[in-house]
Amino acid sequence: MSNRAERRWQQRVEGGRYRVPDGIVYDEFVGELRPASGRAFTELHVRYRVWNGLYVDWSLTLQARFGGLEEFRDSPGAPLERRKIEVVDVSASAIRRHTYNPDEPEEPPQTAVIVPLHAGDHARVDHEYMVQLNELARSWSQKHGVASGDRRNTAVWRFVEENRRPAIRTGDVSWVRNTLICVEDDPADAVLSERAGYYFPNVKNAQGVLRSTGRMQFITAAPGGRLTAEEAQVARDNASHDGVAAATGDVTMGMLVDSIYSGDWTGEVDDFLGGR
Question: What is the pTM assigned to this prediction?
């Protein structure tokens, strides 16, 4: 059956509406974009589903987080406040942009259609996923100039690129899901307690830590970043290095990774990001 004939058939069967295939699950990743604006920090939250190698359903959310580690330590019982800035998503047979007013979070967003979608437009949705992310990276760099070169931004954009590779779902790092992207200097409690507590309170999550060498190493934590003494023990025979250490005080993510790998680097996910 030709592509054109197949498309006509899909449109007749599905009524012309874009539909996401059944039987696939969501994955997510979150990273921080710098510079901050006073005490407002911008986070990029990406949620997506992959089918036959195509990103067939996704949402890209920019959020303003109000406060940093000091504010969280003052009130550690709950994550910091966040307000939506912009969402680009696949919804109602279109790719849409929803623009919010963070100063008036109760106001409904202004919504515009970027690309209308029809039955069978999976390849188009996949293409637009990278178009929108690349445009965000370009506009962020244009807006902030030299300041946009922060290593946290580098970590986010490199992970976006590597996340497109099938190996992240089928290779040695297929266990990496629900990922918090950070750099080795980030305070561990900011990532594992505050950020994980907000984005992944009920599911196990991974942390991708960009090292000064340009490599990214991965660890995992219990839902919400909760840590136990048992989880602090390094499972040397586990290829995923599925153990975590207590993240309190002045511990950084780099220190945490070093303590988990404990000098045994044979299982490192070598050259996953950069450093090739």
Answer: 0.84
DSSP 174: T
Residues 226 and 175 in one domain: yes
Domain contains 169: yes
Residue among 87, 135, 133 nearest 110 (CA)? 87
Backbone angles phi, psi at 128, to 5 degrees: -70, -25
Q: What angle do CA 155, 193, 173 make, to 5 degrees?
A: 45
- Do 125 and 67 belong to one domain? yes
Tell me whether residue 155 is in a domain. Answer: no
My answer on whether omega of the bond before 35 falls inside 30° of 0, hence cis, is yes
Per-residue pLDDT of the chain (276 residues; tens, 9 = 90+): 455 655 554 554 456 899 999 989 999 999 999 999 999 999 999 999 999 999 999 999 999 999 998 999 888 778 899 999 999 999 999 999 999 999 999 999 999 999 999 999 999 999 999 999 999 999 999 999 999 999 999 999 999 999 999 888 888 888 899 999 999 999 999 999 999 999 999 999 999 999 999 999 999 888 876 544 344 333 223 334 444 444 455 889 999 899 887 654 333 333 333 333
Q: Which residues of 177-200 are buried (b: 16+ CB within 10 A; e: fewer)?
A: bbbbbbbbebbbbbbbbbbbbbbb
Domain extent at residue 184: 165-276
Long-range contacts of 57-60, Cβ-Cβ distance < 8 Å, separation of 24 or more: 57/20, 57/26, 57/90, 57/125, 58/89, 58/90, 58/125, 58/129, 59/87, 59/88, 59/89, 59/90, 60/87, 60/88, 60/89, 60/132, 60/133, 60/136
Question: Which among 127, 136, 92, 130 has a CA at the least distance from the CA of 111?
Answer: 92
**Strand order through the sheet with 26-37:** 110-116, 94-99, 81-90, 54-66, 40-51, 26-37, 179-183, 205-210, 216-221
